[in-house]
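Subject: complex prediction, re-run

Hi both,

The earlier run crashed halfway through, so I resubmitted it with identical inputs.
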Amino acid sequence: MGFSYLNNMPLAQARKAYLARLIESGFASRTETVPVPESCGRFTARAVYAAISAPHYAASAMDGIAVRAHDTFGATETTPVTLKAGQYVVVDTGDPIPEGCDAVIMVEELVRTEDGVTIHAAAAPWQHIRQIGEDVCAGEMILPGAMEITPAAIGAMLAGGVLEVEVIAAPRVAIIPTGDEIVPPCADPKPGDILEFNSSIFSAMLRRWGAEPVTYPIVKDDFDAIRAMVERAADACDIVLVNAGSSAGREDYTASVIASLGEVVYHGIAIKPGKPTILGRVGAKPVLGIPGYPVSGIIVIDNLLRPVLDHWFRQGPDGTHLVTATLTRPVVSGLKYEEFVRVRMGYVGDRLMASPLARGSGVVTSFMKADGILTVPQGLEGYPAGETVTVRLLSEEHRLRNTLVVIGSHDPLLDELADMLHSDAPELYMSSAHVGSMGGIMAVRRGEAHAAGIHLLDTETGVYNLSFLKKYFPNGGVKLLRCVGRQQGLMLPKGNPMGIRCFADIARPGLRYVNRQKGSGTRILMDYLCQTDGVDPAAVYGYEREELTHTSVAVQIAGGSADAGLGIYSAASLYDLDFLPICIEEYDLLVPDSAWDTPMVQKLVELLKSDKFRDRIEAMGGYTLDRPGTLIELD
Amino acid sequence: MGFSYLNNMPLAQARKAYLARLIESGFASRTETVPVPESCGRFTARAVYAAISAPHYAASAMDGIAVRAHDTFGATETTPVTLKAGQYVVVDTGDPIPEGCDAVIMVEELVRTEDGVTIHAAAAPWQHIRQIGEDVCAGEMILPGAMEITPAAIGAMLAGGVLEVEVIAAPRVAIIPTGDEIVPPCADPKPGDILEFNSSIFSAMLRRWGAEPVTYPIVKDDFDAIRAMVERAADACDIVLVNAGSSAGREDYTASVIASLGEVVYHGIAIKPGKPTILGRVGAKPVLGIPGYPVSGIIVIDNLLRPVLDHWFRQGPDGTHLVTATLTRPVVSGLKYEEFVRVRMGYVGDRLMASPLARGSGVVTSFMKADGILTVPQGLEGYPAGETVTVRLLSEEHRLRNTLVVIGSHDPLLDELADMLHSDAPELYMSSAHVGSMGGIMAVRRGEAHAAGIHLLDTETGVYNLSFLKKYFPNGGVKLLRCVGRQQGLMLPKGNPMGIRCFADIARPGLRYVNRQKGSGTRILMDYLCQTDGVDPAAVYGYEREELTHTSVAVQIAGGSADAGLGIYSAASLYDLDFLPICIEEYDLLVPDSAWDTPMVQKLVELLKSDKFRDRIEAMGGYTLDRPGTLIELD
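This time it finished cleanly. Structure:
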């Protein structure tokens, strides 16, 4: 049952040594000749020289007349000179300069008279003439080798009479999905089916880098079948990626397949995620075993395949845009690995904030939401919250400066607001992190958010939010924006099979409850209800089972892995669950004064007051609207 | 003969008002549905919601065994617990959690015994289980509308059971080349032929922005023919570009054609280059008249068409990367226009330098070489040398930091070195500007260059370069790198038809001489020879006709527009010209001490000493090599 990895190579070392091994095995790029107009974005295989000069003849640079300069000498405002027919030739821009002429006078400077054209200034020799080769001279180097071809370079080559160019060929990269449970993407998978979408992610990454992905049919976990497919791919392509089967489970054949066909250079890299990686070769062709989890795969391809492609294209490493940012939450990392943490980023005032996203290797959305990658070096235990860290930026900086950062309690309406915001104002974006109401209050206190969704019940007064603001913002400095009233209650399987009648029923033996994380308003409500209704949390099976959003609680119940959970009506109705109403709570948006005048917050206020917000919210159900977007008196 | 433009609209105003006019005319984008795997880089037409949860079942996150957590309670190092058959199920990563189990124990933590598996730690409920919807919950918004689809977003959509996505369609942009002299690109054009490569430049730009260019056949300067083609294009495409025919020459029909089919919104924008631009529409479709010079066209498309495309794709303006740089040479600009100056950039030490490139609208290579665009606002006369200016960066900053900046005297061998440098060290680049030897010395003095090619003859001593260094660097601080000896002489048409025998013959009546610019070493040599050989410059026809490089002097002679010029043998032989040798000069490279230790300069020295440099130089001919790359004693 499993065997330990051959090694735990530090990333930098593995990258360097693997590439060296490939090169000594004869790994090198191919070239091809393409028509210049289709060469944009390609890299020149060798220096490109002009075949002809541009312009290839002395040309007029203006509309006007071509003359002999010395015929015009002496002409001034007071002593004009008149040129007779034969002393000038009418030319348009681009016309060849007639034999004997050595200057052009602009049409604007001419006065037509009956016996010719009169000028009031002498022409300097060679004025307004585009000399041969002004742009490119025949034989001149237009582009060195291994340079990217830009639109302007295409123009320069065609101007220089170069119609075809030898470029570095796009490497064909085979992607072989393996696994007994792997099925093509579909909308109705069976339990145990694993959707094969990695090849689509990898293909899109490869195309962006100028490679040509070739996805092979899914192969079952069978040594001979995988071996045959790898052999076939290594024959037809320049690089081979075998997806999954790279760890040490019962059915991981990739390493032995590569060993049987060529060489396993490294198995196991000291990175997280991505450790179960295989760097191998078949002859001179790189063959890599990529971990099955999408996030691991993306990181391995970015960090270990990309350098191989850079070598192929004869390019230096890409300029990674590094920025320093403030970490909003602590990051704990293992000493054994170099860890790559996806972070969501945003400017609050002039501070660039980085919030770690879900770390699970299966969470591909974390990469979609990531604005940057924080690397925790091997041998470091991580970083505390508030630490200034260096982050590799994935999003454009101007986008981050225009991103509304919302941190706090989750509600699906935030996603709708994000959609409305960007659609209404294309230059604005919204990024939200779900850390519960208290998390939101703390984020605003630390100046890390433009807004926070909160719904905190004061169990003494029964009033929402206000007392918490008094406590955590004794000196004010914040505004409270009225958002919505939400119907809270127990979400139950369709038809309420266990016949739940009241909150206290969640303690029934055999009932599987699913809870929310500490610090969330719903968790506070849960604990408050346990008190008031005399329910002992210890008696609730699943009390310690925590989910981060209303939706994910609803999903557990809809999926049959739980029988009850506290949450909002809109989430329950989304999954057609039964719902036992318990109370209406106030879900408001907390905004620091410092962020009030930003275009993002002003647009947010405008949207909350809009009819289209009302329409969307009413369509979702379970909300009450009372002048959303207006300020609540903090007295 | 010509008419004044309808207007001279400031750029920002024209951009805004034109777009507003298009929108009120009904201009809007189309959408289309594409398979998700092919959607990378496209923009979502509306918000995308997950159809299923991912994972869609509770799955094991590890290889190991699935258990009931409470069966494991009490297990410790000292009091191990043994699970009997039936109390556990072996699971691999991704396997569904069996009914009744609520935790997974990793294979690494198990000890197999004859009567089952022994564990030394209790399992926390729900440990190592990927809950349903950990990544995506069914019904959750995956992407808002008008968002770019990334590789990870493709994975998120497929994980969420979304197989097709509605995206904003690529606008079809018609490009109609017009003009009687326009011919398709070729290697043997006749005098007067103008190669039509603008459509290839524009197409490449448009594809980069996600549009679909459609190039139409070349149309002659004929009102009816152009009108028919524009009508056809406006019918088949979303946007129409008519190239050239937008100025006020004798045969410019574009404006009247657009007026006859729809509306000319603006004719004449206050930008340079690019003034003769037409912003019009036919129905709701934008129809633009683009100036014929490639540089003007690129700037007009970038500044006036791009915003139209941004509106189509519902995107905010692109984040232009602005940097501050030091201007190496003055920029003079007209008050009437907003001027766009292409600049070459490089870091010398920590100073980012910007050198204006050739300003001619026909010089497409200036765009190819440009690292940035300097905008001189309307109403400003320009900037002095040394001014700190804001530049829009076109190249990546890390590339500029790795660019060897060579400013000074021109020699074709510099291009060969640029090619060798980047091929040898893909992370390094070289950028050279030709401003003559004295210009190079001044650039090094001002700290604007890593190296300067110089060949300055001390007319007293007959010694090259050294006395100039003593004069301009009295306190030292520079090194002189031995490069090559160059054969200087008179370049003459093949067969020497005018029978030139000696230098003094250039003053012969009827002979057309072509000179080099002041400050160039060759010009200094020229003037020195005039003295020594008693030639009166005033008697030399073409003495004031200046070219910037040896190659361009050779081209004028090869092209028949000049009969003689002073230059180096390699340039003459490139064009198979006759050559009357005059002297061998020392062409050396001046390097400031401050730049000596940079990887760029160190690589340069290495290359100068290499055999491949020797081979390339010998192939060019006309050079003598004496320990290139070694240092010359400065006394």
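The radius of gyration of chain A is 34 Å.

- K.
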